[in-house]
Amino acid sequence: MTHAAALDGPQIRLTGWALAPALLAAGAALAVWLLDANTVAFVHLNAAAARWPAWLWSLITDQASTLSAAALLALCVYRHPRIATAGLFSWPAGLVLIRGLKAWADAPRPAATLPADSFQLIGTELTRYSFPSGHTATAFALAAALLYSIDRAARRRWAVPVLSAAALVGVSRIAVGAHWPVDVLAGAALGWLCGLSGALAAARWPLWRTPAGYRTLAGLALCAGGLRMALESGYPDARGVAIVLGAGACAAALICLTRGVRA
């Protein structure tokens, strides 16, 4: 069974394979939980990641913060407004699912349960709302929104690098000591589903095809860029890149605001 999800441009079809990443991540999360391997896996992965410089993990993990993700989507408005729209439409489901589950579970983070000298902690120390990982959910939502906003041939070319980048964000959440493996895997599964919902919604409501919708996207992009430059996200080593990213988003948004609708 397939679901046609495109009203214009390349036709995007969601098959059962579209759910595969979410099912694999959810299955892995369940396995880790049933095997009671969450703490052991965290300690080993965190220790292995400590061999790499802290600034690198800060940089990787910060790209999936809400501010950076919004700025990355803002950059897409200029040449790929459909991807930006899909990412935007994935946000409501993500906000409800991720924030809701965090508040409901109120799970302790590694910093709240493990001795400080037993693992690597990078960035601001967080102790609550561990499950699921919001950064990982954001990364996989963007991955799904991107891959299912392009045609099948392009998707095949980009699937491995895009999914690898999202997975690297998940690993970075363990590397910085912010999340348990189960948090990361659950975030990946939920984020992917949110991204698919965003791609479907963008196909149903192509905002970029109308002047008002396009200006709305550009206006949101300008706000995203400004906020990315102005606000901290808890990782000082990534601050320089954040400012450049925000400036780029603002520049792209201003260009979009001075031209017509992007076809």
What are the SSEs and their pairings?
Layout: E1 3-4, E2 13-14, H1 20-34, H2 38-49, H3 54-62, H4 66-79, H5 81-105, H6 110-113, H7 134-147, H8 152-175, H9 181-204, H10 211-230, H11 239-257
Antiparallel strand pairs: 1-2
Helix pairs in contact: 1-9, 2-8, 3-8, 4-5, 4-10, 4-11, 5-7, 5-9, 7-8, 7-9, 8-9, 10-11
Please, what is the average pLDDT?
92
Biggest sheet: strand arrangement: 1-2
Total strand segments: 2
Indicate the percent of residues in helices. Answer: 55-70%
**C-alpha-based Rg, rounded:** 18 Å
User: Beta-strand percentage?
Assistant: under 5%
* Oligomeric nature of the chains: single chain
The rough form would be described as: globular
Order of helices and strands: EEHHHHHHHHHHH
**Major sheet: size, sense and barrel closure?**
2 strands, antiparallel
Provide the number of structural domains. 1
Structural class designation: mainly alpha
Distance between the termini: 30 Å
List the uncertain runs: 1-8
Structure write-up:
The relative contact order is 0.19. The protein is built from eleven helices and two strands; from the N terminus they run E-E-H-H-H-H-H-H-H-H-H-H-H. The protein is globular and about 55 Å long. It has a two-stranded antiparallel ribbon with strand order 1-2. It has 263 residues and is mainly alpha-helical. The protein has one domain. Strand 1 and strand 2 form a beta hairpin. It has helices at residues 20-34, 38-49, 54-62, 66-79, 81-105, 110-113, 134-147, 152-175, 181-204, 211-230, 239-257; strands at 3-4, 13-14.
Quick rundown:
By secondary structure, the chain is mainly α. The protein is built from 11 helices and 2 strands. The chain has one domain.
